[in-house]
Design the sequence.
């Protein structure tokens, strides 16, 4: 017999507030609009008690496929960084373990901060063809968020496999959310 | 209103066969016994149409906390490598996003094959304090399974943070499952 103790089930869902930031019907035409959504997700996540990281996956056309918010605290699950959340939701939506499967349009990841080692590896398996980053690794580490073993060769490894990677898009806006988190964190944890 | 199309839910559960290999009541006393379980999970997964990778997380005492089987194909989810599956299940079971949270015993990961870049990064966040590997990266790449951007410095990065990493435990037995998968014409989903 299966016990709930030994056999827990994992359930992952969007938080109730997701539709206050994500507009599933519109076209996000420019890179800036797409990054603004990823940053808006990161900000809403902080406002709702989550970590300061957001991501969004679009078809190349600008159609929104999925968003991701850091859900480590919400689900007690260290794998649920914003990017990983978005990959899972996007793959579930398209019904494939690769967003680069035959017949699918090109998919692109916009993330409010440069991916950690787990998410950069996860991006390689996800099938996204382009990764656009807002805040930089050092912006996160200044908050004592670790990014793990990511090296210049790590990026090159993905680029050699045809994935385009771009940095520092709306970096200041993305960084402002990291700073918001730090300022709120002081209130919550040092009260 | 939420549409199922735009707002899919993710559900992750152990496959029905898990209890044919995992004995939740016994103590896995030695490293060899623990690795044998990880390898048995990888083999059962192949027998049931999954990828040839298995993992198990134990308390240092030998108490089994969680297992993980590559579930990329079963769930159309590229994040669900065996190790990631095991991290999620273990964290859900202990009720913390870190297996190294205060008050918890030391947790250790046994994996039938050296972790890919995603899983190595994920291991750092998971809170496991020791990683024991069966088959080697080159055993997987010989099957055209990609391992991603993992470098000697990647291991060093984890070791510098107090995580012990050991290689090649029962490597031949672990490798035999990779070869079984190849002989069955198994799908290489991230070539």
Sequence:
């Amino acid at each position: 017999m299966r016990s709930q103790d030994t056999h827990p089930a994992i359930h992952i869902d969007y938080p109730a507030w997701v539709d206050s930031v994500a507009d599933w019907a519109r076209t996000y035409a420019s890179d800036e609009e797409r990054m603004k959504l990823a940053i808006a997700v990161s900000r809403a996540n902080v406002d709702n008690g989550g970590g300061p990281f957001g991501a969004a996956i679009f078809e190349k056309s600008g159609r929104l496929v999925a968003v991701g918010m850091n859900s480590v605290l919400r689900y007690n699950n260290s794998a649920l960084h914003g990017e990983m959340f978005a990959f899972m939701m996007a793959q579930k939506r398209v019904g494939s373990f690769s967003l680069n499967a035959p017949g699918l349009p090109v998919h692109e990841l916009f993330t409010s901060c440069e991916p950690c080692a787990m998410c950069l590896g996860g991006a390689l398996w996800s099938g996204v063809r382009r990764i656009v980053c807002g805040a930089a690794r050092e912006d996160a580490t200044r908050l004592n968020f670790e990014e793990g073993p990511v090296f210049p060769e790590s990026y090159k490894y993905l680029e050699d496999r045809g994935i385009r990677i771009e940095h520092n898009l709306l970096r200041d806006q993305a960084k402002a959310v990291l700073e918001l988190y730090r300022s709120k964190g002081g209130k919550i944890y040092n009260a």
Notes: Chain B has a mean pLDDT of 95. The longest strand of chain B covers residues 107-113. The two ends of chain B are 39 Å apart (CA to CA).
